[in-house]
Design brief:
Largest interface: A-B, 108 and 108 residues
Number of helices of chain A: 14
Oligomer: homodimer
Number of domains of chain A: 2
Distance between the termini of chain A: 42 Å
Strand content of chain A: 5-15%
CATH architecture of the largest domain in chain A: 3-Layer(aba) Sandwich
CATH superfamily of the largest domain in chain A: Type I PLP-dependent aspartate aminotransferase-like (Major domain)
CATH topology of the largest domain in chain A: Aspartate Aminotransferase, domain 2
Largest sheet of chain A: 7 strands, mixed
Helix content of chain A: 40-55%
CATH class of the largest domain in chain A: Alpha Beta
């Protein structure tokens, strides 16, 4: 394990770039190892249910990808992605009312790389970017390499609060914010979805204050109930849209994409050249054939039913076991519920106790910029990965850990210690 | 084509990060599109001969990777790479007398990502790094995102000149250079190999001036003649070593690796999390089984014979057609020959004429830091990709383009115009 390096003296401690100081390693990722212990119930990762894919069919797709297209699939590919892959993505986007041509997008090594490329393209040290607070911790990690000043805007059940956004933009002034990063549908970690009214208002504000909007949409197709809201990109061609096959097919293929205005794509293409030359052409061939030659919508619909059952199980368990002081969101799709506990409950401290009890989750503070001090009494719990009975058991165990901490606090209060 | 954006007004021209200004797009990559025209003979890309892989066997490997290991192979993976992949890489490294354990390396999305991660981990704006001059253009691209001050050291037939390196280090002082980046074996673009004596001296100087050494070794196994020199990493555990399967198997799998001291690996791991979360687990499974279950050394030996024939064809054609004023290197392996033309021949200008004549190559100036003004009369020509008769034809055509430019120059001189 690389972690053995923790106790090794670092001869090079003084020569790292300054950005390394401000980065932090993700507690979640570091817990992935723990999550693979079979007795641990994982509420941490946003891992799709790969076991329900038609692996025999995918195996055939992979075999043919090499046999019939291996000469290009195993070779270096175009930095912006294969034309055939882009054509498939254009077709996928039609379902979201986003009408684009292959030249309107770049294929990326997962949507995570898209975040890195956008940070690299736009952020100088100290530049202001706006995100929801809490937001996707991987986005914060990606941007942090470029040392921005991240301002966060709270959400409620209708998504990012536009009154707070407007106040922030007014304070910061026109054309000073590099971009507004949002996950409008089934937000990570919030689970909430931005209402149509707020979507309209966001785009108005973006134009008024001349700020780019980045719409990250990994979960849009994972809806269990309610009617979909239009994508921001479907409402406004200036929006930068990030998509991925990770949640509708498989993250192991690391295939995502960026849709953006052409001048911006030009820059991103140049930036991507130095970053990894090109994505895996083989993975792109597999993606093409999976979406062209298999009944993927049916497969996804079946998997979605499972996610739906799991969400219901998690929400029922929260009702059953969690203390009345706790609040949580009610997602209509996606992978996550965001739980807010009494202010004195520290979820980072809670995590090690929960781990002893065989449950892991994401402490809320990781979903805010480092040093903000926010989210310490919150947690992201994912319902996507475990079966209903395990989810119920995990919530039961978590509730005991929480109750214990609340009892401890009450004892302190009663003893006059606080 | 994204290039249509070239003529589109860029509303966002003022909001890009400053690093974007100093980056340049690679002429080579932009020519990849041209290279796919069937009438073009490509001396540009360092593309391995994928068609000679046992595609049926690789197809079977890919099918099994999904069928038997798809549940992990299609899922998110560990940021540092799969344990099984690391074990395979350790075994590969044994052949180079590098004795490591899985915890001593991180799997990267191609060695290109390794370069990006190293830049991100070590380079602040203005930091000095040293490379050979000319050097791998993708390394310059990767580093340029972090805005270093790149100092280049010339090479001769024995590799990087240690007298020049020592003078440079003396001038710059101890512990001020972030790292020395070298491709000691079959250098890109030079084709030259560093002698044992120089390798020893490089490591001495690195210790004396407390500078990290990064050894990039994509071509080490592609030797046609002569005895191998030891890897720098085999001589010194402090050396950061970059490897890749791109030239010994397939670049389409985007699988490379970094070997480094543990404290440095810790930082790189953190940096990689934000950059792409993890590489493609599926590609890693395929890599594992290709090296475990196929006679890959035999396959590579057969492909190497082809590269060897092509090198011979190219060197013979250079002797036959190129003017006596031209000089070129004599690589004992790898993919490239570096040609130096009379100072007044500008290879960037030459490229468009060559393209009209159906040949592309890499103009030398791309192999130096932007704005250095060096390499304008040089070119990198790759012999790896085309068959001998095509190589001969390409060199014949190039020689005509060169002769034309030389004749033009002589005419100017005679007319007293210069």
């Amino acid at each position: 394990m690389v972690t053995s390096g923790l106790i090794q003296f670092d001869d090079w401690a003084d020569i790292y770039a300054s950005r390394v100081e401000t980065m932090r390693t993700s507690a979640v990722r570091d817990l992935f190892a723990a999550a693979s212990r079979s007795d641990i119930i994982s509420l941490s990762g946003g891992m799709p249910d790969i076991a329900r894919l038609p692996l025999d069919k995918v195996s055939e797709v992979a075999a043919n990808a090499v046999k019939k297209e291996g000469v290009s699939g195993l070779q270096y590919g175009d930095t912006t992605g294969r034309e055939q892959t882009k054509a498939v993505i254009c077709r996928l986007m039609e379902d979201s009312d986003i009408h684009i041509k292959p030249e309107d997008l770049i294929v990326t090594t997962g949507a995570q790389q898209a975040l890195d490329l956008l940070g690299k393209t736009f952020i100088d040290v100290g530049d202001v970017v706006i995100t929801e607070g809490p937001t996707y911790l991987g986005a914060l990690q990606a941007f942090s390499a470029y040392q921005p000043d991240v301002h966060t805007i709270e959400f409620d059940d209708e998504g990012m609060r536009m009154d707070l956004l407007e106040a922030e933009l007014k304070k910061l002034g026109k054309r000073t914010v590099k971009f507004i990063y949002t996950i409008p549908t089934f937000q990570n970690p919030g689970g909430v979805t931005m209402s149509l009214e707020r979507r309209k208002r966001l785009l108005e504000l973006a134009h008024e204050y001349e700020v780019l909007v980045i719409e990250d949409d990994p979960y849009g197709r994972l809806r269990f109930e309610g009617e979909p809201e239009p994508c921001l990109r479907a409402m406004d061609d200036d929006v930068i849209y990030l998509g991925t096959v990770s949640k509708v097919f498989a993250p192991g293929l690391r295939t995502g994409w960026i849709i953006a205005p052409h001048p911006i794509l030009q820059k991103i293409k140049m930036v991507k050249q130095g970053t990894d030359l090109c994505g895996s052409a083989l993975n792109q061939v597999i993606v093409e054939h999976y979406f062209n030659d298999t009944p993927w919508k049916e497969t996804l619909a079946n998997i979605n039913v499972k996610y739906w059952e799991r969400r219901d199980a998690m929400l029922a368990a929260l009702e059953e076991f969690f203390p009345p002081e706790a609040r949580w969101t009610h997602p209509c799709g996606g992978f996550f519920v965001w739980v807010t506990l009494p202010e004195y409950v520290d979820t980072v401290q809670m995590l090690s106790v929960a781990l002893e009890n065989g449950v892991i989750f994401v402490p809320g503070d990781g979903c805010y910029p480092a040093g903000s001090g926010k989210g310490r009494n919150a947690m992201r719990i994912a319902f996507c990965y475990e079966e209903p009975e395990k989810l119920r058991e995990a919530i039961r165990r978590l509730s005991m850990v929480i109750e214990e901490r609340m009892a401890l606090y009450r004892a302190f209060i009663n003893a006059g210690a606080l």
